[in-house]
Amino acid sequence: MEEQTFEAPFDEMSAYTGMRDLAMFEVGGSAVVHRNFVRLTGERQSQKGWVASRTPMAAPEWSATLELRASGSSMHLYGDGLAIWLVSNPDHIEGPVFGREDHWTGVGVFFDTFQNLDHSHHHKHPYIYAVVNDVTKGYIPDAEKPDPAKQALPGAVDNSGCSFEFRYLESRHDTSVLNHTRVHLTFKDKTLKLRLQQTALGERGEWLDCFEMKDVELPSNAYFGISSATGDLVDNHDIVKFTVSSLEGVADPVAHHAAWVNAQDAQERAVLEEFDLRPAEATQRDYSRVLRAQAAAIKSLTADVNKLKQSMEFQLASLADGLASTKSNVDAKSDDLREVEQKLAQQEEEKEEVKEKVADVEAIKREIKSEVLAASTSHRSSFYFLFLMLVALAGVGYNRYRKIMKSHYL
Questions:
Q1: Distance between CA atoms of 45 and 234, rounded to whole angstroms?
Q2: Of 207, 241, 213, the residue nearest 64 (C-alpha)
Q3: CA distance linking residue 98 with residue 27, whole number of Å
Q4: CA dihedral over 150, 152, 155, 160, signed as positive or negative
Q5: Where are the domains of the chain?
Q6: 409: which strand partners?
Q7: DSSP per-residue string spanning 310-376
């Protein structure tokens, strides 16, 4: 179903922005289309990115294959995750549920990598689970007192989720850009099934059956979408391929998917086999052996070049996210530094003013001391003058007294 499908390489360009785009899907938020993958969110905090189909899903029974890569540089702390949506609302409204609105109508399949330590879980993270909603319930994954009548909860329906390590640690030596997680989601006979497969350096692992939900009611003419979000913890969430096909008239969805995968592999081999040379001289075995070796080398070189291109694109995208995050942090630190410099300058000005005030106070103190000293000296001089005057008067009176007494005796 072409209107529900996109896969790398993405070579279509938007006539408005000049950037890579998806023809049948809306690309929004932090999502960026690269040639070999769509990055919904990078390793930056508080991002929300999405792709949403512009065409409703008409088939009542269907098979969807998602090829994703969730990876990051942190060994223990990462989040939040991503989600596959099939909902009645054709417009993607940004919200708190892996980048989309709460209270949806339809189903959300959540790939939850964030381990909330505030509440205990009945499952181990990363955890993959499906939640059906009829717009009346709020999404509360870690409710202390769950109420299934009012809350959309993980595990509210039996066999609706599983724990699966689908996230890759980028610092591991056995991890490359070819490490993907393949998700096969089917809906048939009102049963929603999901199984998973990991790849490592191009090798495919065994399929793991994750959940099987029965008696699922989905809205007709619903819209597919994929969204992702980061919070305080971050990860890269990349989409490589999303393919949808109808299961009408298909008895076995797993066999149908295996046949489709085999057809895809055969098509890829046919492209590489163009490098094989078939000489007319079939009897010349040495010549044929050399040509086969050259063809094998060409195929190996082509695979290595393609891997290198993807690796370079992945690293450049991660570098761009890292530089943007670093620039944001540096700008914030620069603002803080300027504020500190302003406060220091203000403190220096206030310090100079204090020095001036101290100098004024010292000058006033010196003036007061001088006045006190002057006043004290003036008071002492007046006392001495008065004392001398009294002594002089006493002397004059005493002399006159002697004269009177002397004249009396004579």
A1: 6
A2: 241
A3: 15
A4: positive
A5: 2-251
A6: none
A7: HHHHHHHHHHHHHHHHHHHHHHHHHHHHHHHHHHHHHHHHHHHHHHHHHHHHHHHHHHHHHHHHHHH
Smallest CA-to-CA distance from 239 within 78, 27, 31, 67 is with: 67
Q: What mean pLDDT is predicted for residues 73-94?
A: 90
* Residue 311 or residue 218, greater confidence: 218
pLDDT in tens, 312-359: 888 888 888 888 888 888 888 888 888 888 888 888 888 888 888 888
Element (H or E) spanning 131, and its range? Answer: strand 127-134
Which CATH number applies to 2-251?
A: 2.60.120.200
Using DSSP, state whether 278 is helix, strand or coil.
coil
SS3 173: coil
Q: Which two tokens stand for residue 91?
A: 């417009």
Per-residue pLDDT tens over the stretch 84-135? 999 999 999 999 999 999 999 999 999 998 865 544 455 677 899 999 999 9
Q: What is the dihedral of CA 274, 276, 277, 278, to 10 degrees?
A: -100
Q: How far apart are CA 74 and CA 168, in angstroms?
A: 10
